[in-house]
Structure formats: structure tokens, C-alpha cells
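Need a sequence for this fold. Nothing fancy.
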């Protein structure tokens, strides 16, 4: 009987030790909040029947996104963004919100795509119709870009956005499609990683 109890004790000792060795605390990123901004160059894509040709606009873009990580190859985000493009003939300002999907396939390079919608305003420096120097529109926007890790919490951004505008001064709706190329900096506000217990083979 003594041998049986000794054997039972040894089995329980090794089993307990093995189970304790398999439970390991691990860190995983749960969420990121980031702010970004930079320079943009845009084709306003609108003449309004004017004798003046389109010319390129330049300006700034600003925004923020909240990203949630689910241990997937891609991470979804909620994004807000303002594009302020001014030029010699027409200014186009858009204020958008929507979804962004980021790929974390490569070590330093993070490609992404987004779809945004919101409000846009145009300002004409040489109005064709007297007094018609401003209009607004619902704006939809789709884009692709690349975030590149520079240093801790900082990334470079290269970004392209295509937009759809519909405007009209009480008459037929005029549809046009500006395009925006932008470069900037993205700052990822650090959050404490989630700590969880995972069972891994030792």
C-alpha cells in the first residue's frame, strides 16, 4: 500500500508541475489610437463651365483613427479625416468619417484601404454665375495607402484618395471626381498591451 501511495504522489507532483509550466502570461496588442496629418496635392477635377482650366490644389490633411486588433492578418479601424485643398481657381474642403482596414503582413510596411463619407464645400475664385461662389455636397471617398514604421510610435504615410462630389446651384446636378495624393506623419498613441494567460507547450 505504501508503494501505491508513493507512486500516486509522484504522478500528481509531475502532472501539477507540467501544468503550471504550460500557463504563460503573454502580451498582445488590443487597440491603437493614432493621429495623422501632412501635405496634400489634389486635382480638383472641376471647371464649372468656366474658361479657366483646372489647376492643381495644395493644402493639408488631418485625421485620427481607432484600430482594433483581433489576431487577424488585417485590422479594422474607425477613421475621421479632413482634407483642405486650396488652389488658384477652386478650393475643396471635405470632412469625412468611415472605415479603414490595415494589413499587418510585412514587418515595417502596413498597407491599408479605406472608405469614407461626409460633407464637402467648394469655393470658386472666378465664379461663372455672378454671386455663385460657394456650394456644398455629400462626398464619398475611397483610398489606399501605406504606413511605414520610422521609429517607436511614428510612421510615415503615403496616401491616395479618390472622391465623388455632386453639386448644383438649384439646377442640374454636376458630378465630378477629385483625386488627392498626400504624404504625412502618423503618431500612434501608446496603449498598455493586453496581458492574457495562454497555454503553450513547454
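Here you go.
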Amino acid at each position: 500500500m505504501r508503494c501505491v501511495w508513493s507512486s500516486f504522489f509522484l504522478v500528481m507532483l509531475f502532472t501539477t508541475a507540467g501544468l503550471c509550466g504550460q500557463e504563460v502570461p503573454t502580451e498582445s496588442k488590443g487597440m491603437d489610437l493614432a493621429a495623422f496629418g501632412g501635405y496634400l496635392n489634389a486635382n480638383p477635377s472641376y471647371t464649372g463651365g468656366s474658361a479657366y482650366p483646372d489647376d492643381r490644389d495644395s493644402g493639408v490633411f488631418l485625421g485620427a483613427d481607432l484600430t482594433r486588433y483581433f489576431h487577424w492578418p488585417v485590422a479594422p479601424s474607425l477613421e475621421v479625416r479632413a482634407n483642405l485643398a486650396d488652389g488658384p481657381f477652386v478650393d475643396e474642403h471635405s470632412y469625412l468619417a468611415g472605415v479603414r482596414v490595415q494589413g499587418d503582413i510585412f514587418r515595417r510596411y502596413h498597407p491599408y484601404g479605406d472608405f469614407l463619407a461626409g460633407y464637402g464645400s467648394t469655393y470658386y475664385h472666378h465664379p461663372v454665375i455672378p454671386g455663385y461662389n460657394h456650394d456644398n455636397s455629400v462626398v464619398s471617398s475611397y483610398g489606399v495607402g501605406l504606413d511605414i514604421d520610422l521609429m517607436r510610435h511614428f510612421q510615415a504615410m503615403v496616401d491616395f484618395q479618390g472622391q465623388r462630389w455632386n453639386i448644383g446651384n438649384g439646377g442640374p446636378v454636376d458630378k465630378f471626381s477629385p483625386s488627392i495624393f498626400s504624404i504625412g506623419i502618423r503618431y500612434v498613441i501608446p496603449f498598455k498591451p493586453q496581458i492574457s494567460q495562454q497555454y503553450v507547450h513547454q
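For context: The chain has a mean pLDDT of 80.
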